[in-house]
Specification:
The structure is a homodimer. Chain A is α+β, with helices and mostly antiparallel strands. Chain A folds into 2 domains: about 1-135, Jelly Rolls (Sandwich); about 165-245, Orthogonal Bundle (Arc Repressor Mutant, subunit A), CATH 1.10.10. Chain A is about 45% helix and about 25% strand. Chain A has 10 helices and 9 strands. In chain A, strands 1, 2, 3, 4, 5 and 6 form a 6-stranded antiparallel sheet that branches. Chain A has a 3-stranded antiparallel sheet with strand order 7-9-8. In chain A, helix 5 (about 125-135) crosses helix 6 (about 135-160). Chain A is globular, with a radius of gyration of 20 Å. At the A-B interface, helix 4, helix 5, helix 6 and helix 8 of A face helix 4, helix 5, helix 6 and helix 8 of B. Chain A binds a DNA duplex (30 and 30 nucleotides) through helix 9.
Chain lengths: ~250, ~250
DNA sequence: CGTAATTTTGACTCCGCTCAATTGGCGTGG
DNA sequence: CCACGCCAATTGAGCGGAGTCAAAATTACG
């Protein structure tokens, strides 16, 4: 039959971009689907794209056409204000969705840059919308993803608006550790993909302050730092730092 | 016929909650629909709800079931962190959508409180999802609303992360003025619905700083303030303050 | 009309920024 | 393989913007 004549290469491509085969499935798709249902979602990803460290997946101002799911690697998103100031608005790792900012205005508002060699699944947005109209669990899931991004951003607003520098950095480390754990990496030992400057931009402080605080956390026995290598020694201690009210009350 | 026997009260209710008749239509629904298409959307709103000044529409932690469109009035959203600190994460006025944060985790993460007597349209979320599966323009519109909320939050992150107190307050005033203009109010003269403390919380500064900056802006001839009454005198000047790089470069 | 809440203003303090020098890591080319 | 140069990170000294504490003025509201 005709189906048997599909060239090996095409089969390979299909396999390579098949969501149903992806080990990040539970991170970017609804859970509890039959394999049959899952395979209908394989149509969502049109192709994959590699992004080399330092290169950008898309730039602020570019027309929006697709969402991207991180397969592996690490990204930062940056926003550039009218007067040229640049602010890091988020860090993204495997299984997270990029490009949600572009839906509203039909162009991207931020720039997404790889902090290490990375790969993403390209999901043309028209296809995402079409599938989620036909497939309720996907619709539900997609809405949750959008909503969680809003909640995440509000968490950052809380961070920036009401915490002091040391609390912010502690919260940052705890959050990073949790996200890495969820992806099967060590919770206590990791390599920072971003510079002190990028951490500082994200957390609303200067790179020198970040550096000083790392040193202080180390003196206090909370972590061990050597450049980009971080080992968390006392996670409970970090959580205490991050939650401590300003004045002892 | 039976349809003729619909009691007058029910007709009235239908009229009162009809999106197709609402003068905020262009703020919360897709534009360019036929009146026929519009009337299918009348099913989205189940009822209206009044919220008295100081009362809350919902609280953080409560189960999520519906979205709300502001008909008139003014709301603040607040987030309470583990250690009890409260942060204002946004202000909402007529035509804006509340409750988007609740979709992801099926409970609300923030509390929405009316800052003046207000009224909202209640839109059961299941109905929103159902209608947006059947009606493409609504789906598209809803996705845009979600995305714009993300973009808005990122703007606030930029504000909090990379601007100084006076720049933040100037940006706040300019933004408020623009949103009021879009709703047909005066761009230059308005009444602040929130306290200095709430502005400060939103902008990541203390209420005393807000007050001092209002006074300074007044001395500099940018605005006129008497308590909650604000009149913008020099909007271009405010924009200059908000965009000025830290060091004179 | 009186009491509470909000706002304004002042004086002082301190956290985080600026400026600057130094150290450390890493890739490149001699 | 080591030397060089570049970039990132660390550390110090001094300063300034915004916070804290406090008191007075003004307004809102029951």
């Amino acid at each position: 039959m005709a189906a048997m004549n599909v060239p090996a290469l095409a089969t390979l491509t299909r396999l390579r971009t098949a969501c149903s085969q992806c080990n990040l499935r539970e991170l970017c798709l609804p859970v509890g689907l039959s394999s049959e249902e899952l395979s209908t979602l394989d149509n969502m990803v049109s192709t994959r794209r590699k992004v080399r460290r330092g290169d950008s997946l898309f730039y602020g101002g570019e027309p929006f056409s697709a969402l991207y799911a991180v397969r592996f690697g690490f990204f930062k998103s940056t926003l550039t204000s009218g007067d040229g100031r640049e602010q890091v608005t988020g860090f993204y790792m495997a299984g997270e969705l990029l490009g949600l900012d572009g839906i509203g205005g039909e162009r991207h508002t931020c720039t997404l840059t790889a902090l290490e060699d990375s790969e993403v699944c390209v999901m043309p947005f028209a296809r995402v919308e079409e599938l989620s109209r036909r497939f309720e669990p996907l619709q539900r899931h997609f809405h949750k993803v959008l909503s969680r991004e809003i909640v995440r951003d509000q968490g950052v607003m809380m961070l920036l608006g009401s915490m002091r520098a040391e609390e912010r950095l502690a919260a940052f480390l705890v959050n990073l550790s949790q996200r890495l754990t969820a992806r099967g990496f060590s919770a206590s030992e990791f390599v920072l993909r971003m510079t002190r400057d990028e951490i500082g931009s994200y957390l609303g402080m200067k790179l020198e302050t970040v550096s000083r605080l790392f040193s202080r956390f180390q003196e206090d026995g909370l972590i061990e730092v050597h450049q980009k290598h971080v080992r968390i020694i006392d996670i409970a201690g970090l959580k205490r730092v991050m939650a401590q009210a300003h004045a002892a009350s």
